[in-house]
Amino acid sequence: MRKAVGLALVLAVAGLALAQKVPDPPKAYPPGELGELVKLGEAIIMQTDTHPLTKAYVGDKLQCKSCHLQGGKTKNKYATFIGTAAVFPAYSPREKAVVTLEDRILNCFMRSMNGTRPPVASKASVAMAAYITWLSTGIPIQQNSKKPVGLYSMPWPDPAIAKLVKSGKVDVKHGEQVYMQKCAACHGKDGQGVGTFPPVWGPNSFNAGAGMANVIKGASWAKYNMPFGNPNLTDQEAVDVMAFINSHPRPSFKLTDHLPPADKLGVYNSNVPEQIIPAPTWPPAKK
């Protein structure tokens, strides 16, 4: 009996691991105008801060691909767009509302892009949503009633990372060492980026309202995706380096400053009228 239960447990765990394996992205674009729109969305994801349709809404030097590597085609956890569309519409604790995929995309412009929220149903908005939806081709719908997080990004954030931070095991000095050894070559010793690699602090980086400005969320992402091309950070390295990064100045976040004028806003699907998050975000502000 015990052997049977043990086998069942092993199979269940194996099944869970299999379910979390990110599949390959689709190879063929849709035909006709839809395919052209998907390709446009991909171009915007790759060139967000310079693309004619979105550059006016971006306030830093990041692109969507800065966090969603390979334009979201990556199979790395927490960075992929594959399967993301399958969870929407989803409940968002931040907005205290059920949001669409378009809502989720546009809200990134206010935070990660430190810019202004583009209009719903604008050509750029629809194109980006079309591209991300295409990357979920063939994946069953599994709407998320708790958070607007991609299908292969659960559990989010990483439980081991969250445990380290909440237990107070964070060493910024060690984080500086990790940064200089494993991050500075791409992001610069001054954090301002090198070539096409983005700045990680300062006026041209994400603001304090972005997920990456939260050490638990940022470290969860870094653990599975950095260094670029060879992710090898330990849990402790990921936590410490993100604490170091977020101990530096960056733009603070005031929600109303990132919303367009009322006559150009369209529909902003949120039940939270204001949010203010000062920078730097580490160490955490005392309540």
Question: What does this protein structure show overall?
Answer:
This protein is mainly alpha-helical and 287 residues long. The chain has a domain of 125 residues: Orthogonal Bundle (Cytochrome Bc1 Complex, Chain D, domain 2), CATH 1.10.760.10. It is 36% helix and 3% strand. The chain is built from ten helices and four strands. It has a two-stranded antiparallel sheet with strand order 1-2. Strand 1 and strand 2 form a beta hairpin. Helix 3 crosses helix 4, helix 6 packs across helix 9 and helix 8 packs across helix 9. The N terminus is likely disordered.
Quick structural gist:
Helices cover 36% and strands 3% of the residues. The protein is mainly α. The strands form 2 sheets. It has a two-stranded antiparallel ribbon. Strands 3-4 form a two-stranded antiparallel sheet.
**CATH superfamily name of the domain at 28-152?**
Cytochrome c-like domain
Class computed from helices, strands and strand pairing = mainly alpha
Strand content is under 5%
Q: What is the percent of helical residues?
A: 25-40%
Query: How many angstroms separate the termini?
Result: 52 Å
Number-wise, the strands total 4
Which architecture of the domain at 28-152 does the CATH hierarchy give at level 2? Orthogonal Bundle
- The oligomerization state is single chain
